[in-house]
Amino acid sequence: RVAAPAVASFACCYINVQGVESLLEACVSAGATIASPLTRQPWGNHDFVVQDPDGHLLALGEVPEVGH
């Protein structure tokens, strides 16, 4: 443990979820820092980025089903 953990600004973790809009609402209600708003990406993913208390970025989103 360190007082100020190093955070790589160029990396994040992508977590595939179902119900990304509901998850965003829950994160906002809990006071989470939203680093990037809910976005429909050109390749189809629908996602947002949240910052954890240590500053790490977590991308949470839905990946389109094949054929849609």
Keyword list:
alpha+beta; 15% helix; 4-stranded mixed sheet; 1 helix; 68 residues; 4 strands; globular
Write structural notes for this entry.
- By secondary structure, the protein is of the alpha+beta class.
- It is 15% helix and 35% strand.
- It is built from 1 helix and 4 strands; from the N terminus they run βαβββ.
- The protein has one helix at residues 20-29, and strands spanning 13-16, 33-40, 46-51, 57-62.
- Strands 1-4-3-2 form a 4-stranded mixed β-sheet, covered by helices on one side.
- It is globular, with a radius of gyration of 13 Å.
Quickly describe the structure.
By secondary structure, the protein is of the alpha+beta class. It is built from one helix and four strands, in the order βαβββ.
**Number of DSSP-assigned strands:** 4
Please outline the major beta sheet: 4 strands, mixed
Runs with pLDDT <50, length 5+? none
Describe the oligomeric state of these chains in a short phrase.
single chain
Tell me what portion of residues adopts beta-strand conformation: 35-45%
